[in-house]
Design a protein that fits this description.
By secondary structure, the chain is α+β, with helices and mostly antiparallel strands. About 50% of the residues lie in helices and about 20% in strands. The protein has a six-stranded antiparallel sheet. α2 packs antiparallel against α8 and α10 packs across α11. The longest helix has about 55 residues. The protein is flat.
Length: about 575
Amino acid sequence: MPDRFKHMSKAEKRRRSLSVKTIHSTVKGSILLGLTVLVVGLGLYGSSLINQSIQTANNLASYASVSAIHGADSVNLAKQVMAIFRSLTPEQRAKTGTEEYRQYFSSIDTGSGTNHRLLTHMMETFISTNEADDVYMAMFEDTALVYLIDPAEEDHFETGEWEPVERREANKFLHWNGKGNLYDISNTEKYGWMCTAGVPIRDDDGTIVAFLLTDIRIDHVIHGMAGYALRITLALIAVTALFAWRLVRRMQKTTIEPINSIAEAAAAYAGDKREGIENTSHFASLNIHTGDELENLSRVMSEMEQDISRHEEYITRITAEKERIGTEMQMATRIQEGMMPHAVPDRKEFDVFALMDPAKEVGGDFYDYFMIDQDHLCLVIADVSGKGVPAALFMMASKIILQSCAMLGSSAGEILTRTNQAVCSSNRANMFLTVWLGILEISTGKMTCANAGHEYPFLARRDEAFKRLRDKHGFVIGGMDGVQYQEYVLNLQPGDRIFVYTDGVTEANSVEGELFGMDRLQNALNRDPGTDCKGLIGNVRQAVDTFALSAPQFDDITMLSFTYNGPGK
């Protein structure tokens, strides 16, 4: 603790500390909080009114359903109407509300003494003797509400007519678990705010055949709440503005002016530093005697000014060291980039393009393509464990070993076997790498491949989409000595394409933490079937960037695209 730091006694803290000043402001804020609680209480009151409407609608629906079930054969009527509705084509259903549409349901007997007439009279009685806006029997069918009995005079629906509803509402009623009240609150241009409660009507098998529904408007509750909330909000804004004005005046003298003095001293300090002027008394010259934390702050800032001056020389040395390291890392990046093949072999029989984007200055991924002889092309992609400088060093050594083994003219499996032996013989860091390697016989299209724990490649036959090739996997290179790697053969035809990559593509993260994944990769590969190898990799890179947005890149991203054109092209 600096020697000039002033320790306040308990009595001074009770009178002068910023915490006491904050308490004073909090007391005033509590008054505003009380008003806010009043508004919340109003909301709870409005909620209770809505709940009352919900309960009323549910009770009425329950009573009406009992009457409908025991007073008439509502189940049979519902089955008849829905059987006709389900037999109609979409074109016929679209004619709802027309006389032609009503003729489809002319077989439903609506005469005196029928189930239809009894149910209609029953629901008319419920509407006239209760607070409901409508009591009716209907059934949900997908996103349609099919009216079975509708006694309403306004917005009346004949038997079998329907109107569209949201799938959410239909599912809520059709998949009700039997617990609590069954209702839905909606706001539509046609009906306004409406509470719809219902009770299912089931047949002997327990299958829902219809719903007894009750509508109660709740516009008066919503509109009343909105108007009152607006008035309260305006009043609170006025009170808040008045309180803020008084608080600012109080804080101006006790807090803002001392803080401004400290800020001006800090600005002068920064300005002198930019100009190269040595002055260590910017904060020591402040005349702040507020007796609280701000006075202590001015004393601490004075001590800090002295400390910064002492540390500047140290920071200068550290900065120079970081610049040296940065320069060396840039050189390492250029060296690693130089290790990657840039010139494509001048051959018409195939097209190849690759991309490596390390997560750090240097990375552990690499790709390679080179001619073993005039009729054999070697393709390689690999992913070293870890990232940064260690992975880069291991990557360059592994790449040289792989290429040397390949130039001996061995098969794909033998190349990986020899590479593994060489890596394991001097792998004290216990690092490893995954490798996919393919050797193409250009004259025949025969490609011999081997996979050492690498990602599955994608293969697209001519005029077909890319599909993941679940090839044989061996153990990772450097993981265990003595491993014998198996190989497999792809017989390529002109127009066939291969895409290989590292896990930095599929494991790219979005800002929400979701992985890019195989499905998005396959979609990106098949987005533009006619593009060349460079365009294909560009499509994948664009898809990854669009998916990741501002999320940081955690792993190296490397891709290689190859197209076989055929011999003599």
